[in-house]
Design brief:
421 residues, alpha/beta, Rossmann fold, 2 domains, 6-stranded parallel β-sheet, globular
Length: 421
C-alpha cells in the first residue's frame, strides 16, 4: 500500500481492547492501527490483556504485568488488569481502574508521540490522555465509541449522583481538552454537540466494513455449517457477538418460547458475554429445545454461520437510542444478512436498517412483535434475497474501508500538523 505523503506520524493509541479479541472495539482498533502502520506511520498501542467478550484471559497472557508484541507493523504494549469472572458494576469499575493505572505507567515509558489517539470507553482514559498531552505538549484525539456516562444512567447501571457527576466531569474535561473528538455515527455526534461542544470539533470516523464479508454468500452456501450442527431444513435465526446487558437478549428467549411448537425454527446465540450464563440457564429451565448456544467461532466457521443464517437479530434495551452502535450491525449488513432489529425506533441501528432496506425494525423488548416479524419474513424467500442484496450494497456505500480508513488518517494527520503551527 502506498505510504502517507509527507512525514509519517508517531501515534500513541490508548485503548483497553485490541487483537486477539475479535469483537466490538477491539476489531475497530486493530483495523485502524494496522492501516495506519501500513501507511508508514509509527503506531504504538497501550492496551490490556485479551479478555472480551468471554471475560476470561487466555492462559498465555496470564501472570504477566507487562508484555510487548509486534503484529503487522504495530507495537502492542500490554499491561495487567483485573478481569472479573462475574461482571457487576463494582467489579467493572475495578476492572477499568486497574487498567487505567497500569496502562498509564506503560504509556509514560514510551517515546513521545506526535499525536495521542484515545478510545473511549473506558472514559477514564481521558485523564491519561489529558495528563500525557500536557506533559509532552502534543494533541490528543478523543474517539467516542460509546457514550459511557449516558449509557450508564439510561440503563440504570449507576445510581449514585456523586459518581455520575464525576463521570460527566471527566467527559466534559475530555471534550474540552481534546484537539479533536471523533465518533462513529451522526446520532452520537449530535449527542456530543448538544453537550455544548463546537460542532467543528466533532467529526465522524465511520466504522469499517470488512470487504471480505461482502462475498460470503457468493462463495459459501451455508450447507457445511448446517450439516455440522444438524440444522438441515431449519429456519436459522441468529444473534452473534456480545451477550451483555445493553442487548436485552431476553426478548429472543421469549420469542423462542412462543414459537416452541414450530419445529422448523432454530434460534442461535453465537458468542459470549456477561449475560451468557444467565441466558443459558433460562433456556434450560424453560426447556427451549429450539434455542442453541455456540461459542465464539473461528473466522471461517463464523463466515459459514453468516452464510447459513436466514435472519439475523440485533436487539437492544428500550432505553438505548443513539448512545451506542453495535459493530455487529456493520458485520451483518456487510455479509448480506437480512436483519430484524428489536430496537428503539430512534436508534442508529433502526436508522441503518430502514435506510438500507435490509430488514425490519420492531418495538424493543416485545417478543410478539419480534416473532411476528420472523414469521412474516420467513414466508417470502425472494424478499429475503432482495434484503440480502440491499444490505451488502448499503454496507459498501456507507462503510467501505477504502473510504473510511483514509478519511480517518487524513483527520489525524491534519490534527497533528495544525498543533505544530
Amino acid at each position: 500500500m502506498k505510504q502517507n505523503q509527507g512525514k509519517p506520524l508517531r501515534i500513541l493509541v490508548l485503548s483497553i481492547n485490541y487483537w486477539p479479541d475479535e469483537t466490538g472495539i477491539a476489531a475497530f482498533n486493530t483495523w485502524r492501527c494496522e492501516y495506519l502502520a501500513s501507511r508508514g506511520h509509527q503506531v504504538t498501542i497501550c492496551t490490556g490483556l485479551p479478555y472480551y467478550p468471554e471475560w476470561r484471559v487466555p492462559e498465555n497472557y496470564r501472570r504477566k504485568l507487562f508484555q510487548r508484541e509486534v503484529r503487522n507493523g504495530v507495537e502492542i504494549l500490554r499491561s495487567w488488569m483485573f478481569v472479573p469472572q462475574e461482571v457487576n458494576t463494582k467489579k467493572r469499575i475495578l476492572h477499568e481502574a486497574s487498567f487505567l493505572s497500569s496502562s498509564f505507567v506503560r504509556a509514560l515509558a514510551t517515546k513521545q508521540p506526535d499525536l495521542i489517539f484515545v478510545v473511549s470507553p473506558p472514559l477514564g482514559l481521558a485523564l491519561t490522555a489529558v495528563t500525557l498531552s500536557r506533559l509532552w505538549r502534543v494533541p490528543f484525539v478523543f474517539d467516542v465509541e460509546d457514550l459511557q456516562p449516558d449509557a450508564a444512567v439510561e440503563l440504570g447501571m449507576m445510581n449514585g449522583q456523586s459518581f455520575i457527576r464525576v463521570l460527566y466531569g471527566i467527559e466534559h474535561l475530555a471534550y474540552e481538552k481534546a484537539a479533536l473528538i471523533s465518533t462513529i455515527t451522526e446520532g452520537m455526534r449530535q449527542r456530543i454537540v448538544e453537550k455544548g461542544i463546537d460542532p467543528a470539533k466533532v467529526v465522524l470516523f465511520p466504522p469499517r466494513a470488512d470487504s471480505s464479508l461482502s462475498m460470503v454468500r457468493d462463495r459459501i452456501d451455508g450447507t457445511v455449517f448446517r450439516e455440522k450442527y444438524g440444522l438441515q431444513g431449519k429456519l436459522i435465526i441468529s444473534h452473534s457477538g456480545n451477550m451483555g446487558v445493553k442487548q436485552g437478549l431476553g426478548v429472543i428467549l421469549e420469542a423462542a418460547e412462543k414459537s416452541r411448537e414450530r419445529g422448523n425454527i432454530q434460534y442461535l446465540f453465537v458468542g459470549d458475554g456477561a449475560m451468557r450464563s444467565s441466558l443459558e440457564t433460562q433456556a434450560r429451565v424453560r426447556e427451549l429445545k429450539n434455542v442453541r448456544f455456540l461459542p465464539l467461532l473461528e473466522n471461517d466457521l463464523f463466515q459459514q454461520m453468516l452464510a447459513a443464517t436466514d435472519i439475523a437479530l440485533v436487539t437492544q434495551q428500550r432505553v438505548v437510542s443513539d448512545i451506542v452502535f453495535p459493530s455487529k450491525t456493520v458485520t451483518l449488513l456487510s455479509a448480506g444478512c437480512p436483519v430484524i432489529a428489536s430496537v428503539n425506533s430512534g436508534s442508529e441501528v433502526a436508522s441503518a436498517v430502514r435506510r438500507s432496506g435490509a430488514g425490519l425494525v420492531v418495538e424493543p423488548e416485545n417478543p410478539d412483535a419480534l416473532l411476528n416479524a420472523i414469521l412474516e419474513l420467513s414466508k417470502d424467500s425472494e424478499s429475503l434475497n432482495q434484503m440480502s442484496l440491499r444490505a451488502r450494497q448499503f454496507a459498501t456505500e456507507s462503510w467501505d474501508e477504502r473510504r473510511t480508513l483514509p478519511l480517518m488518517e487524513q483527520q489525524l494527520v491534519d490534527c497533528a500538523r495544525l498543533s505544530r503551527n
